[in-house]
Fold this protein.
Amino acid sequence: MIFQQTAAPTGWTKQTTHDNKALRVVSGTASSGGSTAFTSVFTSRTPGGSISGTVQQFTLSTAQIPSHTHQYQRTYDDGAAQPGQVTLGGNNDGGYQFTATGSAGSDQAHSHGFTGSFSGSSQDFAVQYVDVIIATKD
């Protein structure tokens, strides 16, 4: 039985073995564990410390760049535009056209390595707990 009051009611004895711990409901074997008091884990925290180091360079492969094309200008002598190209120039004796390269790239992921260090305090979230079960009276 669990009571939400400071003192045990008449006929009951307050158990003080477990203090400042969370209750964890389990369906298996009941135990206890954790290493840090409940109020220490859930206290207001201000991140501290610093990280210093270098992000390593990385050269993208064709597969890792976004899919795209490039436009380029092409000169020609006969004035005949190719399919999908824009013909610029005043006559059929010569001019230039803009065309695009084939698509390249496929947006694959990539990563950058990091060499460095962290200075500061670690955060311990291993809250102490006591396992309990839920039972109903027959």
